[in-house]
Amino acid sequence: MAAQPVEVLLFMQRTELLCDADADDLWVAAPQSPASVRSRLLAAEREEAKAVLSLFLRQKGLRSTLAARIVNKSDGFIEHLVSKLQIAYRSRYAEGRELSTPEIRDALLPYLEALSKEHGDSLVEVVENFPDPFAMEREALSSSMAFTPTSSNKQKAIARISTAASGAALPELVPYLLDLGMDHEEIKDIVRKFPAFAYYSVDRKIKPLVELLLELGVKNSSIPGIIKKRPQLCGISMSDNLKPMMAYLESIGVDKAQWSKVITRFPALLTYSRNKVQTTVSFLAELGVSEKSIGKILTRCPHIMSYSVDDNLRPTAAYFRSIGADAASLIQKSPQAFGLNVEAKLRPTTDFFLARGFSVEEVGVMANRFGIVHTLSLEENLLPKYEFFLAMEYPRCELVKFPQYFGYSLDRRIKPRYARMTGCGVRLILNQMLSVSDARFEKILEKKTARL
What we know:
By secondary structure, the protein is mainly α. Helix content is about 65%, strand content about 0%. Among the domains are: about 1-20 and about 35-130, no CATH class; about 305-400, no CATH class; about 410-450. Belongs to the mTERF family.
């Protein structure tokens, strides 16, 4: 079936809402009070906003059921969208006239697209956890451009940091960031993704963050990268949000001596709501991870907080259990595996081994012993290394015992070691051949050849 235009899809959704309504909801027997009319219009606009958001999420690749679930638990964000409509069409509201589907679409879709560009993979979390930690900061900074077209806001922000006004210098933000190590194009890129950044005060917003990062041991050279990854950090209140969040994370086990590494790896961690963090921590505890280990996971792999419990962590844990792997142990050793899609990545990896004669139980054992095996590329890693494994004529059980084989470089480690071993006329198990140092490897070969 050919793709339907956006207007048609939204009209169809609106029509379905009307068709589902009771006759009493559609029939107005007598003139209604202004308050009653307004209430009815608001209810209709909420449904319209939900329809636009659902459509937008599906256009971004989410399944219909997932998009519907996100919309249904995002009441705060839906109210936010309705408020945007009220600002955009203030005169229409004064007249008490109902907005059309195209008008609602034209107002909301550009805004949602701008949010998507700004937040990328974190958009769903912004929607579900609205208002996010930096929403109030952004609203305050952009109140003068409340709902003018987003492209206009972006152009104004970029112009602000690109050219000086007549007789004036560039905003102090620009020279400060240049001194920090950024170039002008990098500053523009930040503003393109997050226009409000152009209006941040150096003394009240950016300097305090930079000073905190330096106190935590972050290198000067790493600070520009942190700001580029998450410019919203500069807008978060130090006393009300950022420091309390750090204290909370430390209370659940994040190593405060490692803050510089944690923030450099994943600065978005400090922009999440406490509710989001608590939801993830509760799931890890439910999985069987100890409090001490939860802190270690968050310290070593803070980006686990970007994974949705319902859409990533829980389904992935269930899948690993289904093949006999210990999900609690696995998430501690290889938390990055829990950000992968079951159908697109995990199941194909399991099927790769099943097609080559391994049992489900053996795949589970390999996952327990080498947690990242399901994160490896089939074409670039597993397939070429498995083909060379067959050429070495080792029994299949060697891979089950030592799946770490797939973690070594084929050209720099496996092939050279195998050639050296066979050149000596000896045979070592995979573990002996690959896991020891060069010096230890030579000693093992020397002892083996001496016995020939």
